Amino acid sequence: MGWVDGELGLVALAAMLSPTTLSFSVLALVLGDRPLRTGFLFYLGALTATLVIGDAAASSTSTPKTWVAVVDVVAAVLLALYVVRMMRRPPNPEQAADMIDRMSRVASSPAIAIVGAGAVLANPGGFIPLALKEISETDPSAAEYVAEWVAFTLVALLPLAVALVMLLVARERTVRILTAARGWLERHARTIAAVLLFLVAAALLRNGIAGLTSG
């Protein structure tokens, strides 16, 4: 596995542990009376949206080496600034309450609305351009591109998928675990995300500097 593959893995891991995505996913499962239905539809929306975005970008993943290096450096700086700002900003109770209120409405909505909410709220978001850039650097064939993008998508949505399997196996125990996880996320998710994002930023910076100095 090369350096680029390692960067892609870091980006996928950071997307998987994104506090916003995790929080929305947990809330989708604990706030409704039918957590399996809500969770499956939420997952379906996120999965479909992410795969479609990757397919739409497939024809434009080839990037000149110099510009890849520039993108790496700029992305690293922006990620580092974002992390610093995120960690300096105190928790916002109103934002948390708004998130809970939004997901309470989603959990009792028709199926199509839950799918749409998953597509908007649980996709990897800002990590998608980074993942596309990393995949483009491997100069993949069409089949390799599809395989790498599907792998990134599945990893990014892995927590929700695991939770759905756990609900199938042991529903009551899983609901208790998810309820506890909700409080844990509120206390620790930002710290975990900050560490992962700094690692991604460091990897991007290293790659960008190496690309610019080797030209």
3D architecture notes:
- The chain is an all-alpha fold and 215 residues long.
- Helix content is 83%, strand content 0%.
- The protein is globular and about 55 Å long.
- The relative contact order is 0.23.
- The model has no long low-confidence stretch (mean pLDDT 80).
Order of helices and strands: HHHHHHHHHH
Radius of gyration: 18 Å
Helix proportion: over 70%
Overall pLDDT level = 80
Structural class: mainly alpha
Low-confidence stretches: none
End-to-end distance: 23 Å
Tally of alpha and pi helices: 10
> How large is the share of residues in beta strands?
under 5%
Layout of strands and helices, then pairs:
Blueprint: H1 3-16, H2 19-30, H3 35-56, H4 65-88, H5 93-107, H6 111-121, H7 127-137, H8 142-156, H9 158-169, H10 171-213
Summarize the structure.
The protein has 215 residues and is an all-alpha fold. It contains ten helices and no strands. It has helices spanning 3-16, 19-30, 35-56, 65-88, 93-107, 111-121, 127-137, 142-156, 158-169, 171-213.
